[in-house]
Design brief:
With about 140 residues, the protein is of the alpha/beta class. It is built from 3 helices and 8 strands.
Length: about 140
């Protein structure tokens, strides 16, 4: 994104991962939890690759509402999730919300009035190297 000229505001909830990202990107990475997003109509787009899949199911709709509020009109939002039907932990002990398409549609619908919402899937793997079904949401405010 940086190479394409986007003005990126990078964030991470973990101070350690934010520091690593700063080292790799050569620019500041803000330490911020999803629940702390308080921007209003500030962003033309939000990209959440394999990050919101760590948000507790009970908090996801509220987080998505904050994201919607942080976006300008006609802004684009993209997020990816590991698919599943029950929340749980991977072999490294990391929490995942493991949502299916219906659950994602429910959370996005509960969060805000999106102009459009599209969900696609693909087979891949995660950090643990195990086969993983992924879901990607593309939503327009």
């Amino acid at each position: 994104m940086l190479d394409r000229g986007f003005d990126v505001v990078a964030t991470d909830g973990s101070p350690e991962l934010a520091a690593e990202a700063e080292r790799l990107l050569g620019r500041q990475v803000r330490i911020m939890l999803f629940e702390d997003l308080d921007a209003v109509s500030e962003y033309d787009g939000i990209y959440a690759n394999a990050s919101l899949l760590h948000a507790p199911r009970t908090a996801l709709s509220g987080i998505l509402g904050r994201i919607h509020g942080a976006m300008r009109r006609d802004a684009l939002f993209w997020a990816s999730y590991k698919a599943g039907d029950a929340e749980g932990h991977d072999s490294f002990g990391r929490y995942y919300n493991y949502l299916d398409e219906d659950a994602l549609r429910h959370h996005y619908g509960e969060a805000a009035p999106w102009q459009s919402l599209d969900i696609t899937s693909w087979d891949g793997s995660g950090y643990d190297g195990l086969p993983t079904k992924w879901l990607a949401v593309t939503a327009l405010k």
